[in-house]
Design a protein that fits this description.
The chain is an alpha/beta fold and 242 residues long. 47% of the residues lie in helices and 14% in strands. It contains ten helices and nine strands. 42% of the residues are buried. Bound molecules: uridine 5'-triphosphate.
Amino acid sequence: MGTWSVAREMPPAKLPETVVLSLGGSVFRTGAGDAEYLRKLATLLRALAAKTRLVITTGGGRTAREYIELGRELGLTDVELDEIGIDVTRVHARLLAALLGPPVPPVPAVSLAEAVRESHRGTTVVLGGTEPGHTTDGVAALLATRLRAVRLVNATSVSGLFDRDPRKDPKAIRIDRIGWEEFRARLVRVGRGTPGQEFVFDQLGAELLARARIPIYIVDGRDLGELESALLGRAFQGTRVE
Ligand code: UTP
């Protein structure tokens, strides 16, 4: 009885900050130096997990797109194509979870509820997609909102948001800082994603983060120094959406 009343009078435990990382599939697997990159990434993430709560979503990248294209040629529905994409993102999640090792659960969470439960237990959470209709950026945004994350880092294959596609136009200029309204307007112009569609961020995810005022930091995921700075909330080369 006495112990109970003492426990009730204790202030709630101060939890470490939550940071969400959306790791694009294009970062995960490029076909060059992937094993070395992933080993270094795992070392960085383990060190970070000692200071913050980490939630990581892994994208499907080229592998997902190849299967989606094949399925489309065969006449599969959009929902079926999304489900195939989700399975590929989960392969990547399983790989990263295995690399990070215990206490990260080896089988990626398949729902937001499961991911939230795992995060509340205090472990780093690694997962792929959840439902058809969005991307792993969307999953990352849903979890960032749900877990009241301080920031969402979008690790992608380009070093931020550009005024034009930097892979097509070498004169493209990076936008270092962009407000929510303009960012949303750009997403609306691109429209709702179809399975396997490439764009810098998911529309649903951007809406959620804008409403919750959770900043998105877009950074080149292969540049581990910049990625670390972005995850820690320090100055980095990339784009801040805030
Ligand atoms: P990704 O998250 O990899 O999408 O999911 P992406 O836009 O291709 O991103 P990058 O290139 O990896 O950064 C791959 C596909 O899986 C389906 C969608 O079809 C998506 O395009 N998916 C993924 C879902 O339907 N739901 C999810 O929660 C996640």
